[in-house]
UniProtKB/TrEMBL annotation:
CDD domains: FBPase. Belongs to the FBPase class 1 family. This is Fructose-1,6-bisphosphatase class 1. One of its GO terms (molecular function) is fructose 1,6-bisphosphate 1-phosphatase activity. It is found in: Cytoplasm. Substrate binds at D115, G116, S117, S118, N207, K273. Its main location: cytoplasm. GO terms for biological process: fructose 1,6-bisphosphate metabolic process; fructose 6-phosphate metabolic process; fructose metabolic process; gluconeogenesis; sucrose biosynthetic process. Pfam families: FBPase, FBPase_C. It is an enzyme of class 3 (hydrolase). Pathway: Carbohydrate biosynthesis; Calvin cycle. It catalyses: beta-D-fructose 1,6-bisphosphate + H2O = beta-D-fructose 6-phosphate + phosphate. The keyword Hydrolase applies.
Length: 336
């Protein structure tokens, strides 16, 4: 089979009018930063990149060294290209402006530089998640308000997974496409065209240690899955939980499944665990583009109008029939 590189794929998409030169450059630059992050992660203790910085970020979490390194690699790679108006990162409280000496473009880039941080030191797959919006006022210097757009306004979204292989999974609104890094040649090869999520599944992912904190609809749904053949679902379900959203969603995009990080008594005050703008929205766009569904329990995630840059939301996504069932259980509970 003819090897097609990420660059060739993007040029074809541009020729087909599905993305412009600036968006193509943006994705290329993100991919280049991802390669640098992949090398750094693979070095682990050899380069002393494990461990914490002792500094707390805007999320109230102590940053890992690799959170900071990945954040710097993405900021530095993207700030000079001329395709961006500004950036926002999980690791930085305020939006990140483009230095005045560099030209500004029309896009806004949001990212979770390192997802699944709790897995870094134990050599389990982690990732990088990104989302792309347009600067609403092309001429104006962006403010935080410029980023508060619903997920439906995304022009591109993707993630990198640093696992046994490094992969980049991407959508620009024409399906979901996967690329695998050929470390020897140093470029991404188009390996997974039009990834799709089957509507039915027998696999679920949730952190079951939070069960006593869940809302009744989620508790009912998960208890029925665990009851399996002996229960109302009449068939068995299997569970997986990597505790890296990128890995759990990649498995769901690769073979189906349902991923839940619902609202619970522990995270209710924050509005949920995962972040709307650079975790939930990009994953929701990818899942919908692959034929799945994504909700916060009641609403379509992509229609939520963000109020704050680091806002958190409940996330339930994956195979359509299961997500629809969870939504129906919430509706029933709300009606009773
Ligand atoms: O530790 P828990 O409760 O299982 O939570 C795991 C979740 O937290 C996260 O690690 C949060 O993301 P970050 O690592 O980017 O902060 C998700 O990737 C993952 O789904
Ligand atoms: Mg994350
Ligand atoms: Mg992170």
């Amino acid at each position: 089979m003819r090897r097609v590189s990420l660059s060739q794929f993007l040029i074809e998409e541009q020729r087909a009018g599905r993305l412009d030169a600036d968006l193509r450059l943006l994705v290329e630059v993100v991919a280049r930063a991802v390669k640098a992050i992949a090398v750094t992660i693979s070095k682990g203790k050899l380069w002393d990149v494990h461990g914490e910085t002792g500094v707390e970020n805007v999320q109230g979490e102590v940053q890992k060294k690799l959170d900071v390194i990945a954040n710097e690699l993405l900021l530095q790679a993207n700030e000079w290209g001329g395709h961006l108006a500004a950036m926002a990162s999980e690791e930085v409280e305020e939006i990140c402006h483009i230095p005045f000496e560099y030209p500004r473009g029309g896009y806004l880039l949001l990212f979770d530089p390192l997802d699944g941080s709790s897995n870094i030191e134990v050599n389990i797959s982690v990732g990088t998640i990104f989302s792309v919006l347009r600067n609403p006022d092309r001429e104006a210097i962006p403010t935080e308000a410029s980023f508060l757009q619903p997920g439906t306004a995304q022009v591109a979204a993707g993630y990198a997974i640093y696992g046994p292989a490094t992969q980049l999974v991407l959508t620009t609104g024409n399906g979901v496409h996967g690329f695998t890094l050929d470390r020897e040649f140093g470029y991404f090869v188009y390996t997974h065209p039009f990834m799709t999520i089957p509507p039915q599944t027998s696999e679920f992912a949730i952190n079951c240690s939070n069960m006593r904190f869940w809302e009744p609809p989620v508790r009912r749904y998960i208890e029925e899955l665990i009851a399996g053949k002996e229960g109302p679902r009449g068939r068995d379900f299997n569970m997986r939980w990597v505790a890296s959203m990128v890995s759990d969603v990649h498995r769901t995009l690769s073979r189906g499944g349902i991923f839940l990080y619902p609202l619970d008594a522990k995270n209710r005050a924050q509005g949920g665990k995962l972040r709307l703008l650079y975790e939930a929205n990009p994953m929701a766009l990818l899942v919908e583009q692959a034929g799945g569904a994504a909700i916060d329990g009641r609403r379509r995630l992509l229609e939520i109008v963000p109020q704050r840059l680091h806002q958190r939301v409940p996330v339930i996504l994956g195979s359509k029939e299961e997500v629809e069932r969870v939504r129906a259980y919430h509706e029933e509970a709300d009606a009773s």
